[in-house]
């Protein structure tokens, strides 16, 4: 919000405070000031000139030789290239020695041999942006009013003898998106009550609003207040200079008196308005409703908008004529031929306006205010003020009455607290009279006693609803710098990591020790990436108002982000990449909030061991990564409860090299190789990844791992080799061996796997070492042989194993 110091001084006495001082005090009370600009400090020697003569220069198609009275003893000659310069005009002249906004210094010069004693300035040369220059001055100079005094300083006439305070308004302080809201804020700071001029509305009794228009609202939850006035017998003209100046300095281009008044009232009250050309409505009925899916509307920018049921529209009873709160329709906008105006003032449901503005990529000053909220107490006042101004500037008449639907009244919120609560929270010693004074400065009605504080908040501060809000207002106006600084008085307690923190820290250290670097990815991503590698079939959790389409949905897996990081590194010649991440994933639930789960994931590509004079290169494969995961389980002490089950249910993974991971029959993740087509699309070589749910290990604290002394008695081992079907899983064989191996079986190790010559197609040869140990005595040969024979029988019976 760009606040004009001069405009603000119309309602407050600012004679005792400079723009810089005022900006500093506003910052100290909680509204951030981005900066203060004073254009007059950058401009000098710029005066009002009266063009006495203007003639086309010979042999030039655009230059004019002008004679200009600038208040000196003699008129000066100035060469001007503006196409709209004429004799009799009052113009802005930069005399020799003048300094302009772009740093240009004006000197006496010659153009094509003709002496030029200065420059007739355009608004752009004075520092105005192209986007705010009025249409009649876009390609030339700006013409001042006839009553401008020749030879005097020209800056006040174009509003540059002013200072501008740029406020960075937070969403909760949308009241400061209006000059009146800022006036109340500045008034509280300066202990003044702002005064605003009254509205002199004169209605024409020959017609009533019922003769022109009737309004209706399909759903008052979408549109709680809708009001309309009609101004007839208008002549559309340019706005007066005072109005154009205020709009240009606020960043709005002047168009004509009617449109400019609606923008002026929006800046003054924070209440957006819209003016319809009444005759083009072709109806005496206005209805506010949701758009139908098949409807379209050509907006003022000439674009055809395809509407849906999330869009709120203004209709003439049949077809849309405006997007409510966002932009008017091209078919009903005000033109130079407009004679009668239907003027709208309303309160629309903020979420609908935001959805419409976002979905159509159509943000405006109007939609921004509707999204953040409006002062419902000034809807009628803003409408009346605008109607009176339009009638005055266009020599029109305001039809008697207002067509309206009003299902909601302004609320004066009463908030209760106590002096003790305020002082205890802020650490202050404020008295009853101190609080009375603060609430009076804020313009709040209050009843303050030693026991209780009742504050009635006007509708212009709709952000104040609870006790904490009142305490914040007291802190702001009393002064944050006056709040005492104290340290908390607590007993020092020894701190330690929770079990969840211990597991998380151990996992991070373990992955780093295995050569994986930690990555941190953004939890928000695209909808497509959010769904990839998901552990559940639910739709991703999407934000209602994302910053961009690239950050629209919450991730359901860590893999997508890690693959993006791997791809980024590989594209920059880092061929061997190993990354892991510990983070949260999100799952849609029936409740309001999504379910958050902690996961650990890793991705490896390239070589595990690089080629050297000692070792040959070893590339990453499924078993290398599985070994990292198995060792992590083993260190946690849960390896006995872990199963790896082959899976073809993951479309982005290699169908023959992927497994689901189960812990106590609970699916906790997956491990496998990225599908070759997916790897090719990302320009990656063989890439192996895993993702595991950490929550089961974090939330279920395990028994402490106990270490036992080395056994005194020797153990023994037996080797077994056999042929089984290729489809038989190593994990199932281990389970069978442990079940049949007897109580002295301690470990089983696979030391050979063979398929090929002398082995039947569709079968494989496996060789294992079984280790036996009795910690309390020396094992006997018969005991081991008995147990070993049971293993052979179990394998033959269950898998038709051919023992070799």
From TrEMBL:
Q: Where is the B5 domain?
A: 410-485
Look up the domain of life of the source: Bacteria
What InterPro entries does this protein's entry cite?
A: aa-tRNA-synth_II/BPL/LPL, B3/B4_tRNA-bd, DNA-bd_dom_put_sf, Fdx_antiC-bd, Fdx_antiC-bd_sf, NA-bd_OB-fold, Phe-tRNA-ligase_IIc_bsu, Phe-tRNA-ligase_IIc_bsu_bact
Query: Where is each FDX-ACB domain found?
Result: 711-804
| Boundaries of every TRNA-binding domain copy | 40-155
Per the UniProt record, one Pfam family is tRNA_bind
Locations listed in the record: Cytoplasm
EC id: 6.1.1.20
Q: What is this protein called?
A: Phenylalanine--tRNA ligase beta subunit
Q: Which organism is it from?
A: Alkalibacterium olivapovliticus
């Amino acid at each position: 919000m760009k606040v004009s110091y001069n405009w603000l001084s119309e309602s407050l006495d600012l004679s005792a405070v400079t723009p810089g001082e005022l900006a500093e005090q506003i910052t100290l009370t909680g509204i951030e000031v981005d900066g203060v600009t004073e254009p007059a400090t950058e401009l000098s020697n710029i005066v009002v000139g009266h063009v006495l003569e203007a003639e086309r220069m010979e042999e030039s198609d655009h230059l004019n030789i002008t004679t200009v009275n600038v208040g000196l003893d003699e008129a000066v000659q100035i060469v001007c290239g503006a196409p709209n310069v004429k004799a009799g005009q009052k113009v802005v002249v930069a005399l020799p020695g003048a300094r302009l906004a772009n740093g240009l210094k004006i000197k006496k010069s010659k153009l094509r041999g003709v002496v030029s004693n200065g420059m007739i300035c355009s608004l752009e040369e004075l520092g105005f942006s192209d986007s705010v220059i009025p249409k009649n001055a876009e390609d030339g100079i700006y013409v001042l009013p006839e009553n401008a005094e020749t030879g005097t300083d020209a800056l006040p006439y174009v509003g540059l003898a002013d200072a501008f305070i740029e406020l960075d308004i937070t969403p909760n302080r949308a009241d400061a998106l209006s000059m009146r809201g800022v006036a109340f804020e500045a008034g509280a700071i300066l202990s003044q009550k702002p005064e605003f001029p009254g509205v002199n509305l004169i209605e024409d009794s020959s017609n009533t609003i019922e003769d022109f228009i009737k309004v209706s609202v399909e759903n008052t939850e979408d549109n709680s207040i809708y009001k309309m006035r009609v101004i007839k017998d208008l002549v559309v003209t340019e706005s007066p200079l005072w109005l154009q100046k205020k709009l240009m300095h606020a960043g709005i281009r002047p168009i004509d008196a009617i449109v400019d008044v609606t923008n002026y009232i929006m800046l003054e009250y924070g209440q957006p308005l819209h003016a319809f050309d009444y005759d083009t409505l072709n109806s005496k009925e206005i209805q506010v409703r949701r758009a139908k899916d098949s409807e379209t509307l050509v907006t003022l920018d000439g674009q055809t908008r395809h509407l849906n049921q999330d869009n709120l529209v203004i209709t003439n009873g049949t077809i849309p004529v405006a997007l409510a709160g966002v932009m008017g329709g091209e078919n009903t906008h005000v033109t130079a031929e407009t004679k009668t105006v239907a003027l709208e003032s309303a309160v629309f449901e903020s979420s609908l306006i935001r959805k419409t503005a976002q979905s159509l990529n159509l943000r405006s000053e109007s939609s921004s205010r509707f999204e953040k909220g409006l002062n419902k107490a000034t809807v009628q006042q803003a409408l009346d003020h605008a109607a009176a101004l339009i009638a005055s500037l266009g020599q029109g008449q305001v039809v008697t009455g207002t067509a309206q639907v009003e299902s909601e009244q302004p609320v004066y919120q009463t908030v209760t607290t106590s002096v003790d609560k305020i002082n205890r929270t802020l650490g202050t010693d404020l008295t009853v009279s101190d609080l009375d004074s603060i609430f009076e400065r804020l313009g709040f009605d209050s009843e303050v006693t030693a026991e209780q504080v009742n504050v009635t908040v006007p509708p212009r501060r709709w952000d104040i609803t609870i006790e904490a809000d009142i305490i914040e207002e007291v802190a702001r106006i009393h002064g944050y710098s006056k709040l005492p600084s104290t340290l908390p008085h607590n007993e020092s307690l020894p701190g330690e990591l929770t079990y969840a923190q211990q597991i998380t820290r151990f996992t991070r250290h373990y992955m780093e020790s295995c050569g994986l670097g930690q990555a941190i990815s953004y939890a928000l991503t695209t909808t497509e990436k959010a769904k990839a590698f998901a552990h559940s079939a639910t739709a991703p959790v999407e934000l209602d108002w994302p910053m961009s389409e690239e950050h629209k949905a919450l991730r359901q897996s860590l893999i997508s982000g890690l693959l993006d990081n791997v791809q980024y590194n590989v594209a920059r010649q880092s061929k061997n990449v190993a990354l892991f991440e510990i983070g949260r994933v999100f799952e849609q639930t029936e409740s309001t909030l999504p379910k958050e789960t902690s996961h650990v994931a890793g991705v490896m590509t390239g070589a595990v061991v690089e080629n050297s004079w000692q070792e040959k290169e070893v590339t990453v494969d499924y078993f290398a990564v599985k070994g990292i995961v198995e060792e992590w389980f083993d260190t946690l002490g849960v390896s006995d409860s872990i199963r790896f089950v082959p899976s073809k249910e993951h479309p982005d993974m290699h169908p023959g090299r992927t497994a689901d991971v189960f812990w106590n029959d609970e699916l906790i993740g997956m491990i496998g190789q990225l599908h070759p087509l997916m790897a090719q699309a990302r320009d990656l070589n063989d890439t192996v990844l895993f993702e595991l749910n950490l929550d089961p290990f974090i939330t279920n604290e395990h028994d402490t791992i106990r270490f036992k002394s080395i056994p005194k008695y020797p153990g023994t081992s037996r080797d077994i080799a056999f042929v089984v079907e290729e489809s038989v899983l190593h994990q199932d064989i281990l389970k069978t061996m442990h079940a049949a191996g007897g109580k002295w079986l301690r470990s089983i190790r696979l030391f050979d796997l063979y398929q090929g010559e002398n082995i039947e197609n569709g079968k494989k040869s496996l060789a294992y070492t079984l280790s036996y140990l009795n910690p309390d005595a020396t094992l006997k040969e018969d005991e081991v042989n008995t147990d070993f024979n049971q293993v052979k029988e179990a394998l033959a019976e269950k898998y038709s194993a051919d023992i070799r």
